[in-house]
């Protein structure tokens, strides 16, 4: 070789550089051991000698076949799969794009925004010379002038977030659902990915094509399903659509599922924040799940829209027989049953759920329509089983009628339907119907006499009442004797003998320990349900024991001062400060 050949300056790199010598660069860039995995656009020009040098690219230039860049492209293919699923889904379910999927969409868009920036630094192969172009200006001009750049930008911009930041309003228009479909432009990456795998001899051509067919089919089915749902929800008569014709109430079903999912998430967050025990959390979830499962059976929203007369007729059809066969309402007039049945509320309870809790203030009593419940009590921290109640049996009425804390805990044994009767409505209904009140009282006393000794032992007030009643019955028998039917005139011996039970039960009110215009922050303003005492002084003493401080002023919710306790009504709210 001559000296002139040795000292001859090399030609510019941008004119002579072939891509193939870079296949044998340092290990950090990775080696391409299988030429079949390369794109045909990266094949060397004829006459290029491979392996003669290890020429490096310019600074801040990425080789398109660099191992790290190829891994980045593969990672983006995974994100494209998410985009292919989410874009049609967010068109059909517009709330998803502004709800739980919004943070995920922003993260995915951020990755593709990074890829747009990287593309300005990726060398490309000149198809006329088959030489690798690494000049930043040429790379940028080629990318910007190509259709890829505006489509990449359009498919990456978070239009909904931008609209909300600019206008301050939530983005709920249908136009954003169609703008999200621009993300499907990213599917070209999947096509290129499968094309490269098909040419790679390390992978089976059959299985590669098979996987590609499966992916295309899944995407087509998913997109069609989302489109049909979108069409059914927007068409003026959804029953004429394919989805509406097969599932007439599809909107309600999907709405219940979304509400159930959101409610379950709220319960899980609440239980975690307050560190509730696992058993209590499971009870909350079971009750919530059952509530949504039985929504179709209860149809409360449908009934609320109906006139009261129709609602009453429906309730009589469903529950009148149950009410008439309970021990408390046997023999009462039809007028009483008709009025009572219109005020009841039907509820479902899952197994092992406490319906009534021992020592709680009685607000309702219940009748079992179907299922079974256990009556239990607690002694020295130990649970003791007392009895089992089934269909057409009642519980909670002792606490309501005597106006005492509930003596027992009542827990469902299996899935049970019960009807709930409000203490307030029951009291208003009985007061004007004196004859029915006497019948109910007689039935109630007969029921008390039939209770087990274990149950009476848990209710000292009831036991005392029965003892006094028996003593008075004995005195009446001695003085007057029994009537021809052998029954005692209960109205003469019941109400006045026991302080816990009177003709006019004490009024119950709700007290608060603050001014009505200055409610405490952070909760704690539910109030305390108490029996209204006979004097203002006693009321202030009760409030002091409940709230830990003694007040001097009693006002109503509207700010008017209370001067006469006799003017108060059931469930009035009193503010003591």
UniProtKB/TrEMBL annotation:
Keyword Magnesium listed: no
CDD domains assigned to the protein according to its UniProt record, in alphabetical order: CAP_ED
Transmembrane segments: 69-86, 106-125, 210-231
Keywords for the protein's UniProt record, in alphabetical order: Ion channel, Ion transport, Membrane, Potassium, Potassium channel, Potassium transport, Transmembrane, Transmembrane helix, Transport, Voltage-gated channel
Residue stretches making up the KHA domain: 508-577
UniProt xrefs under Gene3D superfamilies: 1.10.287.70, Jelly Rolls (2.60.120.10)
Localisation per UniProt entry: Membrane
InterPro entries xrefs: cNMP-bd_dom, cNMP-bd_dom_sf, Ion_trans_dom, KAT/AKT, KHA_dom, RmlC-like_jellyroll
Membrane topology: Multi-pass membrane protein
Primary localization: membrane
SUPFAM superfamilies in the record: cAMP-binding domain-like (SSF51206), Voltage-gated potassium channels (SSF81324)
Domain Cyclic nucleotide-binding, chain residue ranges per copy: 328-447
Family: Belongs to the potassium channel family. Plant (TC 1.A.1.4) subfamily.
Entry domain remark: The KHA domain (rich in hydrophobic and acidic residues) present in the C-terminal part is likely to be important for tetramerization. The segment S4 is probably the voltage-sensor and is characterized by a series of positively charged amino acids. The pore-forming region H5 is enclosed by the transmembrane segments S5 and S6 in the Shaker-type (1P/6TM) and contains the GYGD signature motif which seems to be involved in potassium selectivity.
Its job: Potassium channel.
Known partners and oligomeric status: The potassium channel is composed of a homo- or heterotetrameric complex of pore-forming subunits.
Name of the protein described by the UniProt record: Potassium channel
């Amino acid at each position: 070789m001559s000296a002139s050949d040795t000292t001859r300056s090399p030609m510019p790199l941008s004119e002579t550089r072939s891509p193939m010598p870079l296949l044998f660069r340092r290990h950090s860039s990775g080696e391409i051991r299988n030429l079949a995995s390369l794109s045909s656009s990266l094949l060397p020009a004829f006459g290029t000698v491979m392996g003669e040098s290890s020429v490096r690219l310019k600074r801040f230039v990425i080789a398109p076949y660099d191992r790290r860049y190829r891994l980045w492209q593969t990672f983006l293919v995974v994100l494209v799969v998410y985009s292919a699923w989410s874009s049609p889904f967010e068109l059909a379910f517009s709330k998803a794009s502004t709800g739980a999927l919004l943070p995920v969409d922003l993260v995915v868009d951020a990755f593709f925004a990074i890829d747009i920036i990287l593309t300005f630094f990726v060398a490309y192969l000149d198809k006329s010379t088959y030489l690798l172009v690494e000049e930043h200006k040429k790379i940028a001009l080629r990318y910007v002038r190509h259709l890829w750049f505006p489509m990449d930008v359009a498919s990456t911009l978070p239009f909904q977030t931008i609209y909300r930041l600019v206008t301050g309003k939530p983005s709920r228009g249908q136009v954003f659902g169609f703008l999200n479909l621009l993300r499907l432009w990213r599917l070209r990456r999947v096509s290129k990915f499968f094309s490269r795998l098909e040419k790679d001899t390390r992978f089976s051509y059959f299985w590669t094509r098979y996987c590609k067919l499966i992916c295309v089919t899944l995407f087509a089915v998913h997109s069609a399903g989302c489109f049909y749902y979108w069409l059914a929800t927007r068409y003026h008569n959804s029953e004429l659509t394919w989805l509406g014709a097969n599932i007439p109430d599809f909107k309600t079903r999907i709405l219940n599922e979304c509400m159930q999912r959101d409610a379950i998430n709220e319960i899980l967050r609440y239980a975690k924040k307050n560190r509730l025990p696992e058993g209590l959390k499971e009870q909350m979830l079971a009750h919530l799940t059952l509530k949504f499962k039985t929504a179709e059976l209860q149809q409360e929203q449908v009934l609320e829209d109906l006139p009261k007369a129709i609602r009453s007729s429906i309730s009589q059809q469903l529950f009148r027989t149950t009410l008439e066969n309970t021990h408390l309402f046997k023999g009462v007039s039809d007028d009483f049953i008709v009025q009572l049945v219109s005020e009841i509320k039907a509820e479902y309870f899952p197994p092992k759920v406490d319906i009534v809790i021992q020592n709680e203030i009685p607000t309702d009593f219940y009748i079992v329509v179907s299922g079974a419940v256990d009556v239990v009590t607690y002694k020295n921290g130990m649970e003791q089983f007392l009895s089992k109640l089934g269909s057409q049996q009642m519980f909670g009425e002792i606490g309501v009628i005597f106006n005492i804390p509930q003596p027992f805990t009542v827990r469902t044994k299996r899935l049970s339907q019960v009807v709930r009767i409000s203490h307030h409505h029951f009291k208003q209904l009985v007061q004007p119907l004196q004859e029915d009140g006497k019948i109910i009282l007689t039935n109630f006393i007969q029921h008390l006499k039939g209770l087990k000794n274990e149950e009476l032992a848990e209710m000292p007030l009831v036991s005392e009442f029965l003892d006094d009643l028996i003593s008075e019955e004995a005195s009446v028998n001695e003085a007057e004797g029994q009537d021809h039917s052998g029954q005692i005139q209960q109205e003469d011996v019941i109400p006045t003998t026991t302080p816990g039970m009177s003709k006019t039960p004490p009024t119950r009110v709700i007290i608060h320990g603050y001014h009505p215009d200055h409610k405490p922050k952070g909760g704690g303003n539910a109030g305390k349900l108490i029996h209204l005492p006979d004097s203002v002084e006693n009321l202030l003493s009760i409030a002091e024991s409940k709230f830990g401080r003694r007040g001097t002023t009693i006002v109503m919710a509207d700010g008017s001062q209370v001067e006469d306790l006799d003017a108060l009504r059931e469930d009035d709210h009193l503010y003591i400060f």
